[in-house]
Specification:
0% strand; mainly alpha; 79% helix
């Protein structure tokens, strides 16, 4: 049985929301000095990247509605495979700049499907 592609969007949405809750009230210095939050955020970015990778294989039209899927999947691959160690400040910057845009782009197709 094939999985509903919107389930991947929901996974992206919930992981992104979790990241925002993990870093709420923090600044860059606090994030860089908190290994536990870093690990939690990186794990959720891994979930996001894997969900978008699967979505792009299953439903290209739906994944095309999400901003920057190839870059997010590449970020995921760097986190997972460690080709180049991603510095904590780079991940922090992604939480502050890229994550809000991702949430906004995921909300649109999720809202359309309800």
């Amino acid at each position: 049985m094939e999985r509903d592609p919107r389930a991947f969007l929901w996974g992206v949405y919930t992981a992104a929301e979790a990241i925002q809750s993990f870093v709420h009230g923090m600044d860059a210095a606090a994030y860089v000095n908190d290994d536990m939050v870093q690990a939690a955020v990186e794990r959720k970015f891994e979930v996001i990247g894997e969900a978008l990778n699967q979505l792009s294989r299953l439903d290209h039209t739906l994944s095309a509605q999400i901003a920057d899927v190839p870059q997010i999947v590449a970020f995921h691959n760097q986190l997972i495979h460690g080709y180049a160690k991603i510095r904590p400040i780079t991940v922090w910057n992604a939480t502050q700049t890229s994550l809000p845009n991702l949430l906004a782009s995921v909300r649109v197709p999720l809202n359309e499907s309800t």
